[in-house]
Amino acid sequence: MSALNRREDAVRRMLEGAPPSVPPDLHADVVRRGRRMLRRRKAARRLLWLLLLAAAVAFVVWASMARPWVEPPSETTPPLTGW
Question: What is the DSSP string of the chain?
Fold first, then answer.
């Protein structure tokens, strides 16, 4: 008998047997953990949106002060001709 057949037989025996008993307070624990997980996800999502907003505001403030779209003044003066 191969290992695959042995595993299939073991699974069949488990499925044919009586289902395992579930603790009575399992549902309440699962609901509590699910709510806690949803609160954490919501808080993390809000924090990420807040960080994105802060980064956007910081970029706008920097861009308004530095004006990267304006051509910088030349470092040398143009040659004087026609004097």
Answer: --HHHHHHHHHHHHHHSPPPP--TTHHHHHHHHHHHHHHHHHHHHHHHHHHHHHHHHHHHHHHHHH-TTSPPPPSSPPPP---
